[in-house]
Amino acid sequence: MLKPRFAVSLAAVSVAGLLAAVTIALAQRPAADPLSPRPAAQRPISQRPVESLAQRPTEPVTAAPVQLTPEELANIRVYEVANQSVVHVTTSVVQYHPVFGVPIEGGEGAGSGAILDREGHILTNHHVIDDATNIKVTFSNDHTYDAEVVGSDEEFDIAVLKISPDATEKLVPIQLGRSDNLRVGQKAYALGNPFGLDGTLTTGILSSLNRSLPSRVDARVMDGMIQTDAAMNPGNSGGPLLNTAAEMIGMCVAIRSSVGQNSGVGFAIPVDRVKHFVPELIKHGRIIRAYHGIVMLNETSRGLRIAKLAEDGPAEEAGLRGFRVKQRYERRGSVVYRVNELDKESADYLVAIDGTAVKSHTEFLAIMDAHKPGDRVVFTVLRDGQRLDVPLVLGSA
């Protein structure tokens, strides 16, 4: 797993870019002196008018057509197909004075997004719009509209926006591909707005698959990430990672860098995960997760020791055991105190879910994330040295 300090999200915050155009002046060589005429011996010099260059008829010069390589043509096609579906997302935060309640200076941010449908839903990262007071979306034709958050999830870093109902754009949704059949080495394109430079296309390959990144939530991780060397920089967040068919295969989310800019190691959320969660975000405004009722697990050599269960949760109702509180009394002088102690030996050790071994908290969360409320699962635990299967029905959270 990558160290958290190297995972840099790609939302640009208060970035002002200045491009310096460098003009190279070519110094002209001084014209060569004309050659001195050599007089012919004993030969008269005929006098005839000298024809100037301006008087000579000139032949039209036709430039040879530029021959584009197949790779260049493929790049151009990807850009022309996908760019009309990519947007520039800008945000601002209005902060209020804690005493007087009047607006004071806030912050600004920028990122990218992709058009999901003709109803005006826009896909981007949660961290692009997190805490934003005002959100604007700018299309490739420079038309800008206000947008609001329809749904968002911090853990998976996915958000869905919707542009204002009065927008009259002819929206062109991004073409969604697949991420379950990707192969390391295939061509990849990142399209977005790095440093506010809208419509920027960079090319590379898929460098690796199934990488893990630290999540923005607690100690959780984001598994299954796509790694690419297509250049990403602040402002690329929320933009698409594309294949040669101009289909979105991932959503740009972070880079690994110690300086906060491209180092050739970028990451994207697989599009299959995006397609799975977007309908929930549009319908419910959040991702509804399966709820198991296990509050705390300890990783041990014997398995995942269940430290704490939620009261009346699915796990407790199914009969799983966590730490139990034992009471004893202790006399100190003339006063008797009641002392609570944790009985750790009474806890179950989780070793498998539906027959799949689990050895870490990360593996446990990954299996649970694949389930939905109402699913029946079987937890295999070690209790008093014996292996025991405990079925339970997952709730919702």
List the helices and strands and how they pair.
Layout (H helix, E strand, L loop, with lengths): L6 E3 L2 E2 L56 H13 L3 E7 L2 E2 L6 E2 L3 E8 L5 E4 L1 H4 L4 E5 L5 E10 L4 E6 L23 E6 L7 E15 L6 E8 L11 E3 L5 E9 L9 E5 H14 L5 E2 L2 E6 L4 E6 L4 H5 L5 E9 L2 E9 L5 E5 L2 E2 L3 H9 L6 E8 L2 E8 L1 E2 L1
Can you put this structure into words, describing what you see?
The chain is mainly beta. Among the domains are: 83-163, Beta Barrel (Thrombin, subunit H); 291-396, Pdz3 Domain. Helices cover 11% and strands 38% of the residues. The protein contains 5 helices and 26 strands. The chain has helices at residues 70-82, 126-129, 271-284, 314-318, 361-369; strands spanning 7-9, 12-13, 86-92, 95-96, 103-104, 108-115, 121-124, 134-138, 144-153, 158-163, 187-192, 200-214, 221-228, 240-242, 248-256, 266-270, 290-291, 294-299, 304-309, 324-332, 335-343, 349-353, 356-357, 376-383, 386-393, 395-396. The protein has a 6-stranded antiparallel barrel. Strands 3-6-7-10-9-8 form a 6-stranded antiparallel beta barrel. The longest helix is centred in the last third of the chain and has 14 residues, at 271-284. The protein starts with 6 loop residues before the first strand and ends with a strand. The relative contact order is 0.13. Mean pLDDT is 82; it is low at 1-6 and 14-46. Residues 32-63 are annotated as: Disordered. GO terms for molecular function: serine-type endopeptidase activity.
